[in-house]
Each structure stands twice: as C-alpha cells, then as structure tokens.
From TrEMBL:
Annotated PANTHER family: LYSINE N-ACYLTRANSFERASE C17G9.06C-RELATED (PTHR31438:SF1)
SUPFAM superfamilies attached to this UniProt entry: Acyl-CoA N-acyltransferases (Nat) (SSF55729)
Protein name in UniProt: Acetyltransferase
Keywords, comma-separated and alphabetical: Antibiotic resistance, Transferase
Record organism: Cytobacillus dafuensis (Bacillus dafuensis)
InterPro entries, alphabetized: Acyl_CoA_acyltransferase, GNAT_dom
GO molecular-function term, one example from the UniProt record: N-acyltransferase activity
CDD domains: NAT_SF
Gene Ontology biological-process annotations: response to antibiotic
Domain N-acetyltransferase span(s) in chain numbering: 8-178
Length: 179
C-alpha cells in the first residue's frame, strides 16, 4: 500500500492489473477524457505502455471501499519535460501526476479530490517534492475544478499541447506549491 486516506487506498500497479487497465481504457466514457476515444487500449497495448521496466513512471491502482476504480501515476519531471514547461533552470524537486477514475459510477462523488489531495501530500512528505504539476486539457472543466479545489493554480497555457481525438488540444500547466 502506497497510502491510505479513509475509504481510499492507493497501491502499486501489479501485473494482474493489466486487465483492469484494458477494461477502463477501452471504455469510450473514460477515453473521452483520457487518451481519446480514437485511441482504445487492448491488453497488448496496456502491457507495452504501462509495464515498461525502463520507465521512471510509478503506476498505481486506486481503490475505494475495497473496489479497484482507477489509475494514478507519479514521476519526477525529466529534463525534457522541465524544458517544455519552462523549469529548465529550476533546481527544485518537481513531480508530475496523471490520473483517471475508470469506473464512471464513481465519478462526481468527490473521490478525485480526495485522491489528488492525498497524492500531493504523499509526494511532498515522502518524496520531498517542492511542488507538483499537471497539464489537463483546457476543456476538461470537471478535472480543473477538482484540481483547483486541491490547491492547484493555473500557471500558463500550453497551446496545442496534447493530441486528443485527432486534434492538438490546449492544456493548462497547473502547479501545487507547498506553503
């Protein structure tokens, strides 16, 4: 177990979780917000994308009340991403996170807010992050609302940052800085 916050647990991704990821990442409702409906994942693609031993991404499964409901990953920003975001001269410890709730029945229940808040706390306390960043699409208003509730602030617009459903979409670079 990576961490626990009441009914929410986050645990490290295991090989057996590949079936969950394939299920979630082939659901058009989930893909509308994560990866794109034109980019479904089968088991082979999940194994290639999420189980690369040379990858510095730490994948985790989100459990709520004992049910596996989603995925979250965290990673220290590499030089290329620091450059892209404008942090190349910054020597602080910066982590990025990405997540989705793969079970739509668990959407709009405040779980995302608990999750993001808990992960940020984990990264600051356990990984000594100076701040945490994300780059959600501008049009993902529900996610942005959640992140702002958790203390993230919009830093700058990233024009045409992410290919999603055949077009490059604008994203916000958002930060959570510890006080």
């Amino acid at each position: 177990m990576l961490f626990n916050n009441g009914k929410l647990n986050v645990r490290k991704l295991e090989k057996k979780d590949n079936y969950l990821l394939a299920k979630w990442l082939s659901d058009p409702k989930v893909l509308e917000f994560y990866e794109g409906r034109d980019n479904p994942f089968d088991l082979e693609k999940v194994n290639t994308e999420f189980y690369n031993p040379n990858d510095d991404v730490n994948g985790c499964i989100i459990e709520f009340e004992g049910v596996d409901i989603g995925y979250i990953q965290y990673y220290e920003l590499d030089d290329e991403t620091r450059e892209k975001y404008g942090y190349s001269k910054n020597t602080e410890v910066i982590y990025g996170i990405d997540q989705f709730i793969g079970e739509p029945a668990y959407w709009n229940k405040g779980i995302g807010t608990i999750l993001v808040h808990s992960m940020v706390e984990y990264l600051i306390i356990e990984k000594h992050a100076d701040f945490v960043v994300m780059d959600p699409q501008v049009c993902n208003e529900r996610a942005l609302k959640c992140y702002e509730k958790c203390g993230f602030k919009k830093v700058k617009l990233l024009p045409k940052n992410e290919l999603h459903e055949g077009e490059y979409r604008d994203c916000w670079l958002i930060e959570y800085r510890r006080e």
